[in-house]
Amino acid sequence: MKRIKIENIKNIRSLCFNIPDPGLHIITGTNGSGKTTLFTCISRICNNNAYRVGFPAKSNENYDLFSGRITYQFDDQEVTYSRRDNGEWRPSAKNSTVLQSFRYPQIINITTKDKRIFSQENITPRRRGTDTWLNQQLNTILDTDKFSQMIKITTGDLRRGRGIEQDRRRNIAYAIPLGNNRYYTERSFSFGEIVLVNMLFDIQNVPNGSLILIDELELAIHPSSQIRLIQCLKTLSQERGLTILISTHSASIIKSQKNVIFLDAKSDGNVEVIYKCPPAKAIGAIGMREDTNPDIVVLVEDEMGKSLFHALKQKYNLLQEETSYLDIRILEIGGFSNVIHFYLETNNYIFYDNVYVSAFMDKDVETDIIPYPQYGNTSLIQQYHDNSYYLHFLPYTPEVLLIKVFYFYKIDFLRYLKNLYDNQQLNYSTDEQFNFADYEQPFPNFNNQREYNNYISQRGAFRDKCKKEAERISELLSLQINQSKDEIYRVAFKFAVDEILSSEINIRQLLAPTMKRLSR
After folding, report:
1. pLDDT tens profile 294-324
2. pLDDT tens by residue, 158-193
3. 183 - beta bridge partners?
4. Separation CA 55–CA 329 (nearest Å)
5. What pTM did the predictor assign?
6. 331 vs 26: CA distance, rounded Å
7. H or E stretch including 24?
8. Which of 132, 166, 207, 214 is deepest in the core (most CB within 10 A)?
9. Is pLDDT at 450 greater than 90 in this prediction?
10. Contact 476, 381 (CB under 8 A)
């Protein structure tokens, strides 16, 4: 028996879950019933950083949200993890082998984060080939022959031991030949297509006998394709001995199953697990209504953009308390072209009509791209103008703002961080040079494409340098306080909004159209 018991984590008072045998298993339940928390706990069996990523504490005052216990049982053996005051999760017994006893060679947790919707921007080939299996699955799931000739382009180092194994997808690009040395690359794939490419790539590369967790399988995938995907995954689980757990609210997916696993959250915080729940009962219990969706969906480019928007939203809610009740989901989409494409697709079938969708792209898109359609991205820029009422820009490119915090406000920021985490030893070095005077000067007039490209390339190199340094400092600080790097982003952007942006921009004016769900 493989069992996990979760106690007093977030809004779960108690949840006991028996990990099922290999096969495809659908898990559903009301919002807040613990699906994402359960997946985080399962992921910890093989992934040491699962708690750190899945249970980030925002301050000392919020430790109680994650201060419970997680017990893993394998037959008559068990080990319990609990969180200490310093933020570390420690087992009840040192050198315990209980987690290894589960005998999964790998567990992957496919969340709704940016890896799910990653598309390769760097398509400089080192070598080419064909992934026949992937092409066949895409054709079957999407009911097309479009991908029959798709090629796989290696853009980086795929040798074992080089880089993070789970990030191998970032060294690969996909493209469909059109003839005459022209290609339809993955940058132009629809979001349903790119979500499938990434998901199938991850699943294809796990060892036999692994456990796969997929959160919100239906993301960006048409209902008819969802059912064919389920059949594909079911076949895979049987052929390769995989255990695939899928969380979903999709009525199409739930109705396609004979039974589902239903997490029945009680008012006292206890969660009952019903392992053979009839689909009709599950659908009736969770209420497949439009109001189960968020009120607002905000699209951003990446995790830094998400953290900056979250800080802006927090400040707005302090100024406009009547908006604090809204259910807002912030999705990381990728580059600005992905954001615009995804926004356009939301008008088709991805969200219900009553979900308000807007986007906040990085500031450099507004300054470097949008004013210059004559130098490229003409159709994208026109799509932006056609939908500009709902497509906005952050007041800074996030990595540039982080460097201002880390370098120009270092003393104040460290004081803020030390008080927040009761750690007076926090520190980091600031050895790089950043010429903000040049970066922030007005744009010159360009006489030709070459002048524009050179200037934009220099600005891009400055932002890349900012991002690399911001990631270094964030990683260093995260290790010192035993939190995720994303937590450092959140804290730094909150500091930036309070100390820098509040005097530079009108936050009410910037966010009001989205927060008030205004339509043109």
Report:
1. 788 899 998 899 999 999 999 998 888 666 6
2. 444 444 445 677 788 899 998 888 888 888 888 788
3. 177
4. 18
5. 0.64
6. 23
7. strand 23-29
8. 214
9. yes
10. no
Give, in order, the Cα–Cα distances in Å from 361 to each of 316, 334, 365, 382, 459.
18, 10, 7, 16, 17
Residue 122: per-residue pLDDT? 66
Question: pLDDT of 23-58, one tens digit each?
Answer: 999 999 887 788 989 999 999 999 988 888 888 754
Distance in angstroms (rounded) separating the CA atoms of residues 35 and 474: 29
Question: Which residue type, as a one-letter code, is found at position 87?
Answer: G
Residue 108 β-bridge partners: 212
Say how far apart CA 413 and CA 496 lie, in whole Å: 9
Task: Of 206, 1, 237, give the one whose Cα is nearest residue 106.
Answer: 206
Burial (CB < 10 A; 0-12, 13-18, 19+), residue 101, is: middle
Q: Distance between CA 456 and CA 3 in Å, rounded?
A: 54
Mapped onto helix, strand or coil, the DSSP state of residue 294 is: coil
Residues sharing a CB contact under 8 Å with residue 20, sequence separation 6 or more, in sequence order: 243, 245, 261, 275
Residue 404 is given by DSSP the state I
- The DSSP line for 109-177 is EE-SSGGGG--------SEEE--HHHHHHHHHHHT-STTTT-EEEE-S--STTSS-GGGGGGGEEEEEE
Burial profile 342-355: b = 16 or more Cβ within 10 angstroms, e = fewer: bbeebeeebbeeeb
- What three-state secondary structure class fits 6? strand
Closest CA to 83 of 107, 109, 60, 106: 60
Residue 122 burial (C-beta neighbours within 10 Å; 0-12, 13-18, 19+): exposed
Judge contact between 304 and 489, C-beta under 8 A: yes
Fill in the amino acid letter for 490.
R
Question: What helix, strand, coil percent values describe the chain, rounded to 5?
Answer: 45, 20, 35
305: alpha, beta or left, given left = phi > 0 and alpha = psi -120 to 50?
A: alpha
